[in-house]
Amino acid sequence: MDKIIINDLEVLYRIGVSEEERATPQRLLISVEMTRDVSAAAATDDLTKTIDYYAVTRRLISFGEGKSWKLLEKLAADIGGLILAEYRPDSVSVEVKKFIIKEARFVAVQLTRRAG
Question: How far apart are CA 53 and CA 64, in angstroms?
Fold first, then answer.
């Protein structure tokens, strides 16, 4: 299966269990893998026959504006749902990395969702 990959997109979202933690946007890294047959795009060199990864990155950068989440699990699920609804891949895998525990390089949640 063909994949379109966005790796470690930097965003600033309000996330955290406590109100204090959500008071200021935090730096997160989002990675997305979208599966879709891209043979028509490869054959025709036509952007409309694939997923516009630039459009996906712009959407994800602005996705957090005016929103907040308590859990990485909820944020990752919301991102997966957004991508499935708006860009229609066959499946999407999402990883969200957060840099909140000083003894760890990062903590992360990964999930995969399928269309339909």
Answer: 18
Distance CA 18, CA 44 (A): 50
Region 26-52: mean pLDDT is: 97
d(CA 14, CA 25): 4
* Tens-place pLDDT, residues 53-112: 999 999 999 999 999 999 999 999 999 999 999 999 999 999 999 999 999 999 999 999
Domain, as residue range, for 53: 3-114
Tallying the residues shown for the chain, one arrives at: 116
> What domain count does the chain have?
1
CATH number of the domain enclosing 15: 3.30.1130.10
